[in-house]
Amino acid sequence: MKEQLIKEIEAYQPYNEQEEKDKVLILRCLRNEKDVFTRDNTLAHMTASAWVTSLDRKYILMAYHNIYDSWSWLGGHADGEEDLLRVAIKEVQEEAGIQNVNPISKEIFSIESLTVDGHIKNGVYVSSHLHLNVTYYLEADASQALFSKPDENSGVAWFPVEEAVNKSSEPWFKEHVYSKLIAKMKQK
C-alpha cells in the first residue's frame, strides 16, 4: 500500500507552490523515513484529513479541536494504516459521530506539510513535529446527528462554505489550507 500511495502522490498535480514543495518533502519522507506511518517517527509522520461537504455543497463540516483551540477540518494520524482514504473516513466517523460519509473522489484532493507545536496529549508532552498530510474530498448528509469526541474536540458543526475559513483562528491554515480547499472545491 505504501508503494501505491507513493505512486498516487507522484501522479498528483500540485495546485500551487505550497503543494509543489510539500509534494517533494512528503515523497522524500515516504521513501526514506522509518516508521513514517506511525507516531514512532517523532520527526514526521503521515496523517489524513477530510474536507467534508454537505450533499448540496453549501456547508463544510468542522470540529473545534481542543489542542489547537480552533475550528478546523477533521482528520488524524495514520497509526500504521497505509490506506489514507480509509483513515480520513474513519476520523470523520470518530470525530463527528456520523457514519455515512463517502468520498466524492478517491483521488487525493490536497497535500500539506503541517507543523505541529509541542503540546500535552493525555498527560504526556509531545515534541513539535511535522504532519505529512493527504486530504480527501468527502461528502455527508448534513441532517445526520453530530457527536463530539471530548478527548479531541469540544464541538462539531456544519458551516456555510463562505463562513468556514473565518471560523478558524489559525492564520496559516486560513490562508494556505482552508482558502485553497474552498477554491479547489469550487472548481469541481
Characteristics:
188 residues; 10 strands; globular; 5 helices
How would you characterize this protein structure?
The protein has one domain: Nucleoside Triphosphate Pyrophosphohydrolase (Alpha-Beta Complex). Helix 1 packs antiparallel against helix 2. Helix content is 34%, strand content 32%. The model has no long low-confidence stretch (mean pLDDT 95). It is α+β, with helices and mostly antiparallel strands. It starts with a helix and ends with a helix.
CA gyration radius, whole angstroms: 15 Å
The percent range for helix content is 25-40%
Number of domains: 1
> How far from one another are the termini?
27 Å
In CATH, the topology is named: Nucleoside Triphosphate Pyrophosphohydrolase
For the record, the CATH architecture stands as Alpha-Beta Complex
What is the overall pLDDT average?
95
Overall geometry comes to globular
Detail the poorly predicted runs: none
Strand elements, count:
10
Number of helices: 5
Topology of this protein?
Elements: H1 2-11, H2 17-32, E1 44-54, E2 59-65, E3 70-72, E4 74-77, H3 84-96, E5 101-103, E6 110-116, E7 119-121, E8 124-126, E9 129-140, E10 153-160, H4 161-167, H5 171-187
Parallel strand pairs: 1-9
Antiparallel strand pairs: 1-4, 2-3, 2-10, 5-9, 6-9, 7-8
Helix pairs in contact: 1-2, 4-5
Summarize the model shown:
This protein is α+β, with helices and mostly antiparallel strands and 188 residues long. The chain is 34% helix and 32% strand. The chain is built from five helices and ten strands, in the order H-H-E-E-E-E-H-E-E-E-E-E-E-H-H.
